[in-house]
Each structure stands twice: as structure tokens, then as C-alpha cells.
Amino acid sequence: MDDTRMGTMPVRPLLLRMAWPMMLSMLIQALYNLVDSMFVSRLSGEAFQALSLAYPVQMFMVAVCVGAGVGLNALLSKRLGQGERTEAKSVALNGIFLYLLCYLLFLSFALFLARPFMAFFTADSAILSAGRTYLTIVTGVSVGMTMQFATERILLACGDPVGPMVIQGVGAVVNLIMDPILIFGLGPFPALGVAGAAIATVMGQWTGMAVGFLLLRRLRRFPLSPKGFRPRGDILAELCRIGIPAAAMQSLSSVMTLGLNKIMALYDPNAVFILGAYFKLQTFLIMPVSGLTNGLTPLVSFNYGARSRERILALTRFALALGAAIMAVGTILLLLIPGPLLGLFGADQAVLDSGIPALRWIAAGLIFSGLSMVLCAVFQALGAAMTSLVISLLRQVVLILPAAYLLGLVQVRLIWASFPLAEVLAFLAALVLFRRIQRKRLSEL
What we know:
Layout: H1 11-41, H2 45-81, H3 85-112, H4 114-121, H5 125-140, H6 143-157, H7 162-184, H8 194-216, H9 233-265, H10 271-305, H11 309-336, H12 338-343, H13 349-363, H14 366-381, H15 385-398, H16 400-410, H17 418-440
Helix pairs in contact: 1-2, 1-7, 1-10, 2-3, 2-5, 2-6, 2-9, 2-10, 3-5, 3-6, 4-5, 5-8, 6-7, 6-8, 7-8, 9-15, 9-16, 10-11, 10-13, 10-14, 11-13, 11-14, 14-15, 14-17, 15-17, 16-17
């Protein structure tokens, strides 16, 4: 899509056009991660545990790349909205350079920390060996991952929502095809086990990177060339200023999960199972909203750079309505069929007795969760990254963890009320902060 349409096309079809490919690509990513784990689980229980222990490192890598992407997306879209194409090219190239620095961080982990990390969590030699092998490959050869993210974010900022979907889709298909071939040794390929799973993942990422750079060459109105490139401290600092809070925000869900597991284990032996099942279900509930916010951010940034206050407000209102509608579907599902949803994970009667009311408690806060996610995306797009981080901290750490502990002291089943309580209070805080930003920043446009 021509980037000028980001400032002229009616906001509702524009947002839908930008968001739906991201929603679909996230679904593809979730599905191939699930299949990846299913293939490895067929090797052995130790192999599956190794990948489970490695998962937080992969999520940290994703969080870093997403954070860098938020900074790149917001700043590049803003420069394009201001009509500063030369400056926009510099932002794009410095963004690619920043992603190369991210790769060096991951490579350092592969060289020095993969084994100590696994040894910290397990003394089982089989798990330790498999986990070290997997982590060394997926972190040490992750340049494909970082460059794939870079190309996706540049394309999205330039008004191309389909390109990122193609990049992720092609990479996912390569991973899906190569997983069983390399893990189990099909045809002329030897059985590589866990190493095969890691290599298949890397092959998918490198394929996505190659497709991404090919798609960048189509940007005729915005050609990129490394000729004469020099890193610019001011641009890198601005990218980090916006991106670091976003990366930290992406990492908060891990902190919340660890904290809730610890707290809930004190009160109910089934709570950890229920929480795990919910987070698996939640992945599919929030994916559409995450896709929506990914499409929203560059649009708001572009129109902020173009000083179009009315379009920013119209985009925000429509995104809030869509976010609420999407999460309302999840709310209905958790209220009407919590038992069958838990049954997908083999829940026994004791788990169902505790889990059914738990999911219904959680359902009460889902709509507010979607609204907060949309407002956080708007904050990031307007350059108020720290405000976005504050709201995420409230939702996922500051409010929910103390509430879960204190409510559990009153009555075990009230633990789950901490979810809607935290979401409602965080949304009210987000609304207050949005009105303040609206007065201070948007009123000047």
C-alpha cells in the first residue's frame, strides 16, 4: 500500500487493511510453535522438558526484537508522515544496524551462557545436553530472526501490511516442513533430534529474512541502500528510548506467570494447572488484539507526524471498539464453556471444580484488557513509551500479584478475582493518562 494513503484513506478500512494480515501471521506463528513442541515431545520427555526450559530465552529474544521494532516502526512512520524521506531512510538503516547489535547480544549468550543457563534449572544430563544444543543453535544463528523482524517493521511502517504476513508465513511453512525431516531423519536426512528442531527453526528464520529483503527492494518510492551508511547516535538513542520500554513490557508476562505460579501454589494445588491452561487459551484470545495494535501503531505515528489530530482520535476510537468486540468473544467463550476448554488439556474433576469458576472470574476482565492494550499501542505511537510501560506494569505486576496474594488469604477462590480487579484499575489509569496526553500533545496539532 502506498504510504501516502496512511494519511488520506478512511480510517476504518485503513486500520482493518493494516491489521488483518498481522492477525493472521500471529495465528500462523502460534500454530507452528505448537506443532514444533508436538514433534519434539515424540522424541522423549527429556527433549520436551529441554525445549520448555529454553522457551523463556526465546521469549526474551522475541521481546528484544519486538521492542526494537516498536521504536523503528514509530520513528520511521513519523518521519514518513512528516514527508522527510531522506531522514526516514536513515532511520530504516539505523534500525537494521540496531537489529544487528541485538544479534550480537544473542550470539554472546550462545557462546558463554547457554550451558550455565540450563545447568541452573536442571542436573539431568539428558535435559542439560539437549537444552544446551537447542539454545546454542537458536541463539547463535539468530541473525535470520533479527533481520526478519527488521524487514517486517520497515514494510509495516511504509504501509505494507501483507509483506510481514508473507515473511512470517513462508518462514513458518519452511519450519513446519523441515521439523519432522530433520528431527526424525526422513529421506536422505539423518535424524538430528533436538538439534534438528533448532536447525529447522533457524532455516525458517533465514528464509523469512531472505524474503523480507526481496520485498524491501519493491519499495521504489523508498529505496534503501547501505552505500555511505554511518550509524547515527541520535537516531539509535531515539530508537532505544522508545524500544526499551516496549521490550521490557513484552517481558512482563513471564514475570507475572512466575509470580502467580508461586502465589497460587500456596493456596490451591490445582491453581498452577488452571493458570497454565488459561495462558494457553489466552494466547489465542489476545492474538487478534495484538495484530490490531501492530497495525494501529504505524498509522497513529504517521498521522502524528502529519499533525492530523482528528485522524489519530478516529483511529483510537475505532481500535478501542474493535479491541472490546474481540475480547467480548473471548469473554463469552470463557463464561459459557469453561469446562470443555479446560478439558482440552485433560483436566480431571478436581481441576474442573476449581477451574470453571476461575475462568469465569478471569472472563470479567478480558474486555478491559483489550482496551488497555489498544491504549498502550497509542501511547507508544505518540512517543510516550514510558506511559505504556507503566500501564503494563500495573496490569501484569504491580496490581495483580499483591491482589492475588491478599485475596487468597481471604478465600482461595477469590484469588482469581485479582485478574479483573487488576485489569479494571489499569484501564482506568490508562484512560486518565490518555486524556492527559490528548490535552498536552494532540491539542498542539
